[in-house]
Nitric oxide reductase NorQ protein
Amino acid sequence: MNAIVRDATVPFYKPVGNECALFEAASAKGLPLLLKGPTGCGKTRFVEHMAARMGRKLYTVACHDDLSAADLIGRYLLKGGATEWVDGPLTRAVREGAICYLDEVVEARKDVTVVLHPLTDNRRTLMIDRTGEELVAPPGFMLVASYNPGYQNILKRLKPSTRQRFLSIGFTFPDPVTETAVVARESGLSEARVAPLVRLAGHVRALSGMDLEEGVSTRLLVYAASLMAGGMSVEQALEAAVIEPLTDEPDVAQALRDLIATVYG
Ligand SMILES: Nc1ncnc2c1ncn2[C@@H]1O[C@H](COP(=O)(O)OP(=O)(O)OP(=O)(O)O)[C@@H](O)[C@H]1O
Ligand SMILES: [Mg+2]
């Protein structure tokens, strides 16, 4: 099963707004939380940070279009001629009062919604049809989900009845001062050399929605800065970490090179 279990040391996360306080308040009240935002803006890092800082076990499930309710809840497996029930990551998180993070939840199959509804309203109940069990989530259990509204087509939007069961936080890219600090810390490149990268990102993001599906992520800036910290030239680093990941169109790539020349010229 594609769940990653982590309870290690606290990963670095620099807050952008009041998201840490909101997470703690949601957790204290047992309310589910939805994180919305573009790729690579820090959603996963935020959840990993909060779980570790609160000393809570985290089950992360990367949702995909084949992910079914059984993948989350569990199934009977054949073991040595006998069938045995094996809990899925969601059931384990409920039993243990842990945090369950469903990454890109809209990708999952429709039957997942049916499972999430009783778990995310005041019932806080996980129905396990196959065993007849009805698990009421203990106070520690928290459901966190994320999705990227940018590239979701209309068929894949969350239904109002699902999204209105979650508290929501809209993530955007960090402000330039925060982003500079984040990229410098993550890559080891000096803030002075990260600053133009962040300026460039501002220009590139202004193009998103027009020529680009999505602006350059903080993640890609960390990649570019890491290459530069390792001694690669700015030009080569930006080609591999910004231009090529963002577009396949030669015209758009050239427009990005022109932008780079303006910022670094
Ligand atoms: N506020 C922040 N504090 C620390 N690191 C950050 C922050 N924002 C972004 N990052 C950096 O950006 C990288 C990408 O963030 P992350 O993987 O959390 O993105 P995401 O929003 O989950 O993206 P996706 O939707 O593609 O899964 C992180 O590995 C980290 O290096
Ligand atoms: Mg993520």
